[in-house]
Design goal:
The protein is mostly helical. Among the domains are: about 155-215, Serine Threonine Protein Phosphatase 5, Tetratricopeptide repeat (Alpha Horseshoe); about 215-285, Tetratricopeptide repeat domain (Serine Threonine Protein Phosphatase 5, Tetratricopeptide repeat, Alpha Horseshoe). The chain is about 55% helix and about 5% strand. It has 13 helices and six strands. The protein has helices spanning about 20-25, 30-40, 55-70, 75-90, 130-135, 155-165, 170-180, 185-200, 205-215, 220-235, 235-250, 255-265, 270-285; strands at about 20, 45, 55, 100-105, 105-110, 115. The strands form two sheets. The chain has a three-stranded antiparallel sheet with strand order 1-3-2. It has a three-stranded antiparallel sheet with strand order 4-5-6, with helices on one face. A hairpin with a 2-residue loop joins strand 4 and strand 5 (about 105-110). The longest helix is centred in the N-terminal third of the chain and has 15 residues, at about 55-70.
C-alpha cells in the first residue's frame, strides 16, 4: 500500500446535504475559515453521521455571498447583518437555482426572472456587479486607524486578518500577531497564524503556535490535527501519530485524521495498522 499525501491543515442534518469536504471544494474555502463562519452564524448547517456538518444548497448560496462581501473588505459584523437579511428573503418553497445574487460594497441584490431587488428594503435595483473591483481594492482595507479612534481589540485584529488572508497573507499574519499581543492564548488566532506560517514553511514558529492552540483547544480537534500535519511534513512520524490520535480522541469521526494516520503508520512500517486507519477513513466518507 503506497503512502497517501496528507490532508492539509484545517483551521452535521441527515442526508441529503453537502458534507464539509464538498463545500470546501465547491467554494475554494479553507476548513478553518468555514468553521469560523459557522461559529459567526453566517450559516446554520445541520448534522449528519459522525456528528459532521451537512450543508443545504441555501447554505452554499449564503457562503458564496459571504465570500464576495469579505473579499470586498466588509467587516465581519456587517457581513453577518447582510446575510441575515438575505436569509430571510430567500424563497423557501422553490428552487434557488433561478436566482442570481450580487454582493458588492456591503449590499446584497437578488435578481430573479430578469428583475432585481434588495432584500434589506424590497426596492427594485439596477445590478452593477463590481466584485472584481472590490477584490482588487481589498488590500486597501488595512488602513492606519485614526489616533483618536478607539484602540482595536484582539477580535478586531483577528477579523482583519481573516479578511486579508485571501489577498494579502503577509498583512494577514501581521494582523494576527497584533491580535496575539492582546490575547496570547486565542485558539482561532493561534490556529490561523500557525497555518499561514506552516504554509510558508516556517515550521518552528508554526509548531509553537499549534502547541499553544492544543493547550487551549478544549474539545476542538483542529489544533491536534494541524500539529499532526506539521509533524508529518517534518517526517517526525511517531509524534505525528500521537497528534492524530489526540485529535481522534476528541472527535472519533474526524475522517481526515484517520487518512493521515494511515500514511504515518505506513511510513513507520506498520502496514496492518495503516490499513485499519484507511478502512476507518473509507467507512466515514462512504457516500
Amino acid at each position: 500500500m503506497s503512502a497517501a499525501p496528507p490532508q492539509r491543515p484545517a483551521t452535521t442534518s441527515p442526508d441529503p446535504g453537502f458534507p464539509t469536504r464538498d463545500v470546501l471544494r465547491l467554494l475554494g474555502l479553507r476548513e478553518s475559515r468555514l468553521r469560523t463562519w459557522v461559529r459567526a452564524g453566517f450559516v446554520r448547517p445541520g448534522r449528519g453521521p459522525g456528528n459532521r456538518y451537512r450543508f443545504r444548497f441555501q447554505d452554499l448560496v449564503l457562503l458564496r455571498t459571504a465570500q464576495a462581501l469579505v473579499e470586498s473588505g466588509l467587516p465581519i459584523r456587517r457581513v453577518r447583518r447582510a446575510l441575515d437579511r438575505l436569509r430571510s428573503a430567500l424563497p423557501q418553497d422553490r428552487s434557488l437555482t433561478e436566482l442570481r445574487i450580487v454582493a458588492a460594497g456591503g449590499e446584497v441584490v437578488v435578481e430573479e426572472n430578469g428583475e432585481a431587488w434588495e432584500p434589506a428594503t424590497g426596492q427594485r435595483r439596477l445590478i452593477l456587479d463590481v466584485r472584481d473591483l472590490a477584490r482588487s481594492a481589498a488590500p486597501l482595507a488595512a488602513v492606519v486607524p485614526d489616533a483618536a479612534a478607539p484602540r482595536p481589540t484582539a477580535r478586531d485584529w483577528h477579523e482583519l486578518g481573516e479578511e486579508l488572508e485571501a489577498t494579502s497573507p503577509r498583512e494577514a499574519a501581521a494582523a494576527y500577531r497584533q491580535a496575539l499581543e492582546l490575547a496570547p492564548d486565542s485558539l482561532p488566532t493561534c490556529l490561523n497564524l500557525g497555518r499561514l506560517l506552516h504554509e510558508e514553511g516556517d515550521l518552528l514558529a508554526a509548531e509553537r503556535l499549534y502547541r499553544t492552540a492544543v493547550r487551549h483547544s478544549g474539545d476542538d480537534p483542529t489544533a491536534a490535527f494541524n500539529l499532526g500535519v506539521l509533524l508529518q511534513d517534518a517526517s517526525r512520524w511517531r509524534e505525528a501519530a500521537r497528534a492524530y490520535q489526540s485529535a481522534l480522541e476528541l472527535d472519533p469521526g474526524y475522517a481526515d485524521a484517520y487518512y493521515n494516520l494511515s500514511a504515518v503508520y505506513e511510513q513507520l512500517g506498520d502496514s496492518a495498522v495503516a490499513l485499519q486507519n484507511l478502512q476507518a477513513y473509507r467507512r466515514l466518507t462512504r457516500a
